[in-house]
């Protein structure tokens, strides 16, 4: 679901309350439709799912690519918010918090790749998000990794840069697995086993 903050337009002129609601409905519907049917799903289907006319969709998002980019940015904002909430919660089980967050990042990365590929295929270069989402995610990952290592749940020699490389690789592998949930879950399980300390390293 798209958060209210993520649903806000970037234009300098604020939208009326009803227009903001329509925009948020379109974004939420688009995310659901693209998740279920892929980024190639037609904009008309998004309009039907949102319960609005196609004109309303194009009023807020003049092109299909603009809609794809808006959904992508909304997802990234939401995930960054969730990451910071996990850090703030300071779980009593740092290992579980780390691996749950990591699984979510892998899933999000797979979806993000699909959006980027669709935009690139359309000849659209997605500008780097100016709100510092990447920095927020890296900061959260670093804190969760350190806590999990201190608790003995993750191998001590792992550093954040290596972890990012692993996430990218597993996200691509998850895309390759496609609808085969068993294969995706198995790949993630093998990854997580490799991140845990060996029997001799455990405290």
UniProtKB/TrEMBL annotation:
Signal peptide: none
Domain of life of the organism encoding this protein: Bacteria
One Pfam family here: TetR_C_43
PROSITE patterns, A to Z: HTH_TETR_2
Any one GO molecular-function label of the UniProt entry: transcription cis-regulatory region binding
Gene3D superfamilies according to UniProt: Tetracycline Repressor, domain 2 (1.10.357.10)
Keywords tagged on the record: DNA-binding, Transcription, Transcription regulation
DNA-binding region: 42-61
Domain HTH tetR-type: 20-79
Protein name per its UniProtKB record: DNA-binding transcriptional regulator, AcrR family
Organism: Amycolatopsis pretoriensis
